[in-house]
């Protein structure tokens, strides 16, 4: 785990918490019950239910540990409380490249990033380039496909 803060939106934190609660309160107890039942059936070395159940239980426990660490390290930032004149955490930004192609991205925490829906990590190359920018600013971004320039067209916070 890195030393940088784990910024997250309230919705992102709620999603982490909901997954943790679902795994801890529903899936894990059901799995423990299945493992207990399978263990009672005798020879555990060839008992598929027992072996698979133990493997799945380790996966759930590992995920619970990871979620717990991420929630402890989280710094919940309310996007609507940000300074609306600059690109900061939680901003939804409309960018235009050199070819006037527009792209709308929302800067969110690493745990809630989904590039397919335009939600990019606060630590991604594009987000790092436009942090602190104002409407009309042009920023250069080094991407895997090469260097691009983006102009900030609009900034909004929801």
Strands in their spatial order, largest beta sheet: 5-4-3-7-6
CATH topology of the largest domain: Chitinase A, domain 3
Distance between the termini: 29 Å
Name the CATH class of the largest domain.
Answer: Alpha Beta
CATH superfamily of the largest domain: Transcription elongation factor, GreA/GreB, C-terminal domain
CATH architecture descriptor of the largest domain: Roll
Give average pLDDT, whole number: 91
Order of SSEs, N→C? EHHEEEEHEE
Low-confidence stretches: none
User: With helices defined by DSSP (H or I, 4 residues minimum), what is the helix count?
Assistant: 3
Instruction: Please state the CA-atom Rg, rounded to the nearest Å.
Output: 22 Å
Protein name: Transcription elongation factor GreB
GO biological process, one term: DNA-templated transcription elongation
Keywords: DNA-binding, Elongation factor, Protein biosynthesis, Transcription, Transcription regulation
GO molecular function: DNA binding; RNA polymerase binding; translation elongation factor activity
